[in-house]
Design goal:
heterodimer, A: 576 residues, alpha+beta, five-stranded antiparallel sheet, 22 strands, B: 706 residues, nine-stranded mixed sheet, six-stranded mixed sheet, 33 strands, 32% helix
Chain lengths: 576, 706
């Protein structure tokens, strides 16, 4: 390892400094963004890269998948615009799903860092823009062409001058262009700020070239990852996770091979890419989700950079749902990619029982799009999480977004931007999977139009886990499934029939979404009776739900354990 | 101000500090005693009597007592608040528990979150709804609410928080419910969100209102006990509490909004720095307060620390943002990090040396306390490097064991493959670097250049680390004020009574009604007058400061812009828009073309006259017996020499040690040198120069020898 130049003290100082520059970049995007999805839900990430495009440091709050897809995007950009052709003030951009983050919404903006006329590093950010054009009905899309504007590697700024042609092209192709362009501008300015800080940092410490430092931090991180891998016995570990697919449940099998200090994750059993619906993942996206899961399992406390991923190898057959080919539709790729983590947890559960986590109910960001009576259009996202999976350490938290790092969105803030009334945002009793540790509860959100103004509101709805149960680990039970339903005067349309896009025309139409609960961990019969009682007292489980734990409840509400009750599967609480 | 006596009292985790000041500072006395956590009022009363007795005074001689306390923060950390219930809009009782639903560390699968202050069974939903426009869709039924609350009271609930959606826009439902509750249950504490924090975002508002209700009975009982004890002791003067915003408030105000007390000690430290800045004609300084567990950094511009509108307390994962209880209340905007004398040094998984955030606390303490601690802490490094004299810690009241410090450091050094001295230096320089990094982020977030500001050092460990921190930041100078060890309590005495108000009225300038804004300010100013009158400030002496939180229309986060004095009209729009553009460009980049600025919240700060205290007056009293160490009196030259480690000198060198209060105005000491006082040690590094100014401050010029 090449770290003779840095003792443990100065290395710690320099490295922390780089992380704080990345954090400052993150704060600037967050504070200057215009969309709910970036400014509130924080669906973005940013990082510093060395001159070769390998990650040096990212903000601790960055969207994990973006941290891992950015280097790939940067490599592709630099391949197109070699470093020696770049000029100070250039800003590069792309949203190509195959080289970037897997769907067109995620726009990468990359700024080269110059010192004395030479590129010494890069700052990159990826943010999920509020709109990229294309159909609102994403489950209907067959090809990426239907999904919106594709931006190949291009220059957004040339020597500090905006590329007006490109700006006008984007503006013409997206809904609420001011919001989209404003967010891209937030990325540009945050990158610029971080680039200045990097140069100041190099000047202050007299660093001419970041490569020594880069190699040192990356090597250290790689070493820690290799050590963690070699602690797992060599062998093949298999697992799988079910997911909804398009109308038909599918299964995502995985084989994790550990050999010495290297780990490879083989998705060769993945289903074929789908012709419709955009639930296909590009290999770049699959790789990011796979590597992110391993990072959480193996060295969560080590700051992340390129070194983490050198001993990790990911493969998926070309043409499969995890390595789709152009021009297959990809917009809804989370509907597949978010099942990578539970499959890997399942595979490694026996090897790492204290580090894995049972299935977490997958979050949903519902986009609401329409026109106010005064003619103003809106396009705002309502984010909510499911129940966290339980683990050896503890019960799952009720309502948490995973595997994204996003936050939920404030109801008051959402209502003040979109003319909708949120009638409920509440936990669903009995929705957490039973176990020695209970899965977190899922949540119910109910929405309707505020005014009967005749203007339709389109709500994109893709709750995941409507068709499948994901069992918990070591005997834990599945959490309750997700559901979606539209009611009006006693009539209702449910689930798949809604087709991922609800059109609200009247205030009497009430849309209810239920996000899945987390799965349990360990045998429910082993759950302490005091914890069952506490859940009962707090209404997190009902008396009926107590039966999952082999408990009956007496007339005064006290739980007691009698004969072991048969597993009745998922509880069937009615629509609240 | 007359020659009356004023006392500042600061209850901290370990010690309660007292400062007694006569008139404009003709006399100054300090006192420190152990906090009495079982009954903090007892420690306050005993300490007051002790410091007054030493000055041959009684409580009847005191004109004013200013009190700061960690009572509120500790009550939330230790979960010692009242049995509290929440009334909220139908369908939303879980908002308090869900929080922002965000993971605060992206790689940690097993994050912990704070338990909500109200258990789910006591979160009761009320059928009512107000829209975003403030229009009532459904009115609450008071009879039904009473029924619900009656059950809660029977179960032992003492406090109720009421938080309905969009009440910041229309408080009528909350007010109606509060009214029936107050008349039906006069002993119940009732907090409503539209009074506690009338701002948009339901989670932050409910979390704050719940915390307010949760601590209200406790604060009320504490104040009642303290006030009656003071009265019994013959005290007939004014009694103020220090709020976390840095403003004083009367007990009556604090009873309604106890959440605004939070933690007043750190605010006191900042106030001393800003006071000192005024005295020194340095309006812009960086306050640096380092104690046993944490360091607090705060940028002061134009003699005024910034206020933040949100803070997190009782973090489950110490120092990790997102792991605590979120509170929206005006607080001095300081950066607190886990770096103190007790911070533990350890190798991380990569074999790199890390310091903190875990701390040894008071027990077992650093290894050198010889109270059973074996892990090396920052204080151990300071002993090993010769910066601290093991026989003169707290003026000799505590003896440190250097050998224990060395043993702990040797173990650490072995794992790192370096020498024990290198480990000691590593611990010291990393903790300084950590603080410098935190300071850098804090200053940069304010859009300022961290190299520009002198550091004002306080706290037990501050003066021993300040010069290195300054060097890492590129800061020009360190100022160590007199009484730096009890700075917070002194800070209480140099600050005016004040209170902050705010109203949400989001609008772009083109659609804004300045008449409505004027009405909002009129209402706020009326309340401000009433609040300050209750604190004994006559209307003629109330000063007002107005500012607004602005953003580009469509954004989510604000920057602060002053609201012009005088008439509010189109001229104000132009002035504010220009100020916004300038500040935006300074913080981020030029405002992108085509985006309209808008105002979101309108704020007002009302304050009384600042007590006139002069350090110039204070200086002579510092050389009186009250502060001097009798052993070292009249020694203007070094009292001793000891070996201290400086990398600039390539190792240990004989370093002169001075007694602080033996130094006189104009004395100049070249580094390396050590200056000791009872509560702290000032380190002068080899390239630095120390000078004693006319106000008894020690001023260390960083790199002054070159």
């Amino acid at each position: 390892m090449n770290d003779t130049k840095f003792d443990p003290v100065s290395l710690e100082i320099l490295w922390s400094r780089l992380i704080s520059v990345a954090e400052e970049c993150w704060i600037t995007i967050w504070r200057t963004a215009f969309s709910m999805i970036i400014g509130e839900a924080q669906d973005f990430g940013c990082e510093l890269l060395d001159a070769d495009g390998n990650t040096l440091a990212h903000s601790p709050r960055s969207m994990p998948v973006f941290n891992l897809t950015l280097p790939r995007a940067v490599h592709a950009l630099v391949e197109h615009y070699p470093a020696e052709t770049l000029e100070e003030g250039d800003v590069l951009i792309t949203n190509d799903p195959w080289i970037c983050a897997g769907h067109l919404f995620d726009v990468a903006v990359v700024t080269p860092v110059f010192r004395d006329g030479r590129v010494v590093g890069l700052v990159g950010s990826i943010a999920h823009c509020s709109d990229i054009g294309g159909t609102r009905d994403s489950l209907s899309a067959r090809e990426v062409y239907e999904e919106g504007l594709q931006i190949p590697p291009m220059k957004l700024y040339r020597s500090g001058e905006p590329n007006d042609d490109l700006f006008r092209m984007i503006r013409q192709n997206v809904r609420l262009a001011d919001m989209v362009i404003g967010d891209i501008q937030a990325q540009v300015s945050a990158n610029g700020l971080a680039a200045r800080r990097m140069v100041e940092f190099m000047r202050e410490y007299g660093i001419e070239d970041l490569s020594d430092l880069a190699h040192t931090v990356q090597d250290r991180t790689e070493r820690a990852m290799r050590d963690a891998i070699s602690a797992i016995p060599d062998g093949e570990y298999t697992g799988s996770a079910p997911f909804d697919g398009i109308g038909e449940p599918m299964e995502l099998p995985v084989c994790v091979r550990v050999r010495g200090e290297e780990i490879s994750v083989d998705w060769s059993g993945a289903p074929d890419q789908t012709e419709r619906g955009g639930i296909n993942c590009t290999l770049s996206y699959t790789t990011a989700h796979t590597a992110y899961t391993l990072k959480c399992l193996l060295t969560p406390e080590v700051p992340s950079n390129a070194g983490d991923f050198r001993p990790i190898h990911v493969s998926a057959p070309e043409g499969s749902i995890l390595n789709c080919t152009r021009p297959h539709a990809v917009n809804q790729r989370t509907m597949t990619g978010w099942s990578c983590a539970p499959a890997i947890f399942k595979a490694l559960a026996d090897a790492l029982p204290n580090r894995v986590q049972s299935f977490t109910g997958l979050p949903m960001g519902a986009g609401a799009y329409g026109r106010e009576a005064d003619g103003n259009t809106f396009n705002d996202h309502l984010f909510q999480g499911g129940g966290q999976g339980a683990s050896a350490a503890r019960d799952g938290k009720s309502a948490l977004l995973f595997p994204t790092s996003a936050a939920n969105t404030s109801i008051e803030m959402f209502e003040s931007r979109a003319p909708l009334l949120v009638e409920r945002k509440e936990l669903i009793p009995d929705s957490g999977g039973a176990g020695r540790h209970r899965g977190g509860l899922g949540q119910r959100v109910r929405v309707r139009k505020l005014h009967d103004d005749g203007e339709p509101v389109l709500m994109g709805l893709h709750p995941q886990g409507m068709l499948v149960d994901t069992p918990g680990l070591f005997g834990g039970r599945p959490g309750r499934r997700a559901r979606v339903r539209l009611d009006e005067d006693g009539d209702s349309i449910e689930g798949e029939e809604l087709g991922g896009l609800a059109e609200l025309r009247r205030a009497s139409q009430v849309l209810t979404v239920e996000i899945a609960g987390g799965s349990g961990y360990g045998d429910p019969a082993e759950r302490a009776i005091a914890e069952v009682q506490r859940d009962l007292d707090d209404g997190l489980i009902t008396a009926e739900g107590g039966a999952e734990y082999g408990c009956a409840v007496d007339g005064s509400g006290r739980a007691y354990r009698g004969r072991r009750v048969e597993n009745r599967g998922v509880s069937s609480e009615g629509w609240g | 101000m007359s020659r009356g006596y004023r006392v500042g009292v600061d209850i901290g985790g370990t010690f309660t500090d007292f400062v007694l000041l006569a008139g404009e500072a003709e006399d100054l006395r300090l006192h420190k005693r152990l906090t009495t956590p079982d009954d903090p009022a007892r420690g306050v009363m005993e300490g007051l009597q002790e410091i007054l007795r030493n000055a041959s005074l009684t409580l009847a001689d005191c004109e004013e007592i200013v009190h700061g306390t960690t009572l509120v923060t500790n009550a939330i950390i230790e979960r010692r608040g009242a049995e509290t219930a929440l009334l909220t809009t139908r369908g939303f009782r879980d908002v308090l528990e869900m929080g922002r639903e965000q993971r605060y560390d992206i790689y940690d699968l097993f994050l912990e979150y704070p338990e909500p202050l109200v258990p789910r069974r006591w979160r009761v939903e009320v059928d009512e709804r107000i829209t975003r426009e403030g229009e009532a869709l459904e009115e609450p039924d008071p009879g039904m609410v009473l029924e619900q609350v009656r059950n809660l009271v029977e179960e032992g609930v003492e406090a109720v928080a009421v938080c309905f959606l969009h009440s910041y826009r229309n408080p009528a439902h909350e007010q109606a419910v509060a009214e029936v509750l107050r008349s039906e249950f006069p002993r119940l504490s009732v907090s409503i969100s539209s009074e506690t924090v009338p701002e948009i975002r339901e989670f932050e508002r409910v979390s704050t209102t719940v915390a307010n209700a949760y601590v209200q009975p406790l604060v009320d009982r504490y104040l009642r006990r303290l006030e009656s004890a003071l009265e019994d002791g013959g005290f007939a003067g004014r009694f103020f509490l220090m709020q976390s915003s840095g403003g004083l408030a009367a007990a009556e105000t604090v009873r309604r909004f106890p959440v605004r007390l939070l933690e007043s000690g750190p605010a006191g430290g900042v106030l001393v720095a800003s006071f000192l800045g005024r005295e020194l004609d340095e309006p812009d300084v960086l306050s640096f307060d380092m104690g046993g567990t944490t360091a607090k950094l705060c940028l002061i511009l134009e003699n005024q620390p910034d206020l933040a509108s949100e803070i997190e307390v009782a973090r489950v994962h110490r120092f990790k943002k997102g792991s605590g209880v979120t509170l929206k209340a005006p607080v001095v905007d300081l950066m607190e990090i886990g770096a103190g004398g007790g911070s533990i040094a350890h190798p991380d998984q990569l074999g790199l040396l890390k310091v903190g955030p875990r701390s040894t606390g008071a027990a077992p303490g650093p290894a050198c306390y010889a109270l059973g601690g074996t892990e090396p802490a920052v204080t151990d490094a300071c002993v090993a490097l010769g910066y601290y004299d093991p026989d003169y810690f707290l003026g000799g009241e505590m003896v440190l064991e250097a050998s224990a410090a060395w043993s702990a450091l040797e173990l650490l050094a072995e794992t790192l493959g370096i020498t024990a001295t290198e480990a000691a230096w590593g611990v010291y320089s990393i903790v300084c670097e950590n603080m410098a990094s935190a300071a850098r982020i804090h200053v940069i977030e304010k859009g300022q250049d961290p190299r520009r500001f002198p550091l004002v050092a306080s706290g037990g460990a501050g003066p021993a680390h300040a010069a290195r921190v300054a060097r890492a930041l590129g800061a020009p100078e360190v100022v160590v004020p007199p009484v730096s060890g009890v700075a917070s309590a002194l800070g209480f005495l140099v600050t005016p009574a004040s209170f902050e108000f705010s109203r949400s009225y989001p609008a772009e300038f083109r659609s804004l009604s300045w008449g409505d804004v004027a009405d909002l300010y009129e209402q706020m100013e009326k309340r401000a007058g009433e609040t300050l009158r209750a604190s004994g400030v006559p209307a003629s002496e109330v000063s007002l400061e107005r500012w607004a939180e602005m953003r580009l229309s469509g954004q989510f986060h604000d920057i602060e812009v002053p609201v012009p004095r005088g008439a509010l009209d189109g001229g104000a729009s132009r002035e504010m828009a220009a100020a916004f553009e300038e500040r935006y460009a300074h913080l981020f980049h030029a405002v992108p073309p085509g985006y309209e600025p808008m105002v979101v919240n309108w704020r007002l700060r009302a304050f009384g006259p600042t007590p006139s205290i002069s350090l110039r007056e204070l200086a002579p009293s510092l050389t009186t017996r009250s502060l001097r160490d009798p052993d070292t009196e009249a020694q203007a030259s070094p009292k001793s020499l000891r070996k201290a480690y400086f990398p600039e000198a390539d190792g240990y060198v004989e370093t002169p040690v001075y007694a602080r209060y033996a130094l006189r105005e104009g004395d100049i000491i070249e580094g390396p040198a050590i200056v000791e006082e009872k509560e702290s040690t000032v380190l002068v590094n080899p390239e630095d120069v120390l000078r004693v100014d006319g106000l008894s401050n020690l001023r260390v010029k960083v790199g002054g020898k070159r």
